[in-house]
Amino acid sequence: MLNTRVVVLVTAIFLAAIFRLVPHPPNFSPIAAMALFSGAYLPRRGLAFVAPMGAMLVSDAVLGFHGEMLVVYASVAMIVAMGFLLSAKRSAGRIVVAALASSVLFYLVTNFGVWASGDMYPKTAGGLAACYAAAIPFFQNSLIGDLVFTGLLFGGFAVAERLVPTLRNPAELRAA
To answer: Which residues contact 38 (CB under 8 A, 6 or more apart)?
Structure first.
């Protein structure tokens, strides 16, 4: 039997992925927020990785597959792992710090991947610096998007837990 809480959590992740399919500024997307939310809330670690990866795969099937998918998906996996650190104690401050850290991680890893695998930049320290510098405008959008979508997912689910008792985590209720 499926747990209502888990179904709602996975549904929220897939609904967030829909925002990748509507017109939006470059890199203003729910990718990092979905991964962080998944790691912080889903009770089984395997599912915590599968849910955002599945949502990404479905939306990438619509958007089109690309050469940097491995690096992007690796970044998503790292952000899910960051979410595990939130699972024991979620607070607004910790969630904001994790959202900011996930933005930085995604920026560093994916742009390193662009530099390492492409021909746009020379394979030198200067080429890597140029790659990171060229990505700064996209990083600004990522940062704002990560904060917005993290707030929507974490805040929305916190409200849902208050309004719908069956969504509350029994383990957290016992600990309170």
So the answer is: 9, 13, 47, 48, 49, 51, 52, 80, 83
Q: pTM for the complete prediction? A: 0.91
- Among 13, 9, 6, which residue's Cα sits nearest to residue 149? 13
Angle 45-63/31-41 helices, nearest 10 degrees?
Answer: 160
Residue pair 28/142 in contact by the 8 Å Cβ criterion = yes
The CA distance from 114 to 6, in Å, is: 35
pLDDT digits (tens, 9 = 90+) for 150-174: 999 999 999 999 999 989 886 654 4
Contacts of 122 (CB under 8 A, 6+ apart): none
Write the CA distances from 147 to 50, 99, 150, integer angstroms.
Answer: 22, 6, 5
